[in-house]
Recover the amino acids of this structure.
């Protein structure tokens, strides 16, 4: 399941993302963060981390450097 989600995100990065202006407030970008999460964790944990990250990417958050913490606890 994770590989399917990663494929969908990569299609988004190649097709949709270039058409939009840069709006992600974080580095790495939210889509890269999500790919990293799905590559590292189970489907449920990666989904939780991805949704939490996307909700934080808004005009009221300063953003900045926010890499995925890869400890599997």
């Amino acid at each position: 399941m994770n590989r399917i989600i990663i494929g969908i995100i990569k299609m988004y990065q190649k097709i949709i993302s270039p058409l939009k202006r840069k709006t992600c407030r974080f580095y790495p970008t939210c889509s890269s963060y999500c790919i990293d999460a799905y590559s590292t964790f189970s489907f449920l944990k990666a989904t939780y981390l991805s949704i939490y990250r996307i909700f934080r990417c808004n005009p009221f958050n300063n953003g900045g450097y926010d890499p995925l913490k890869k400890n599997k606890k």
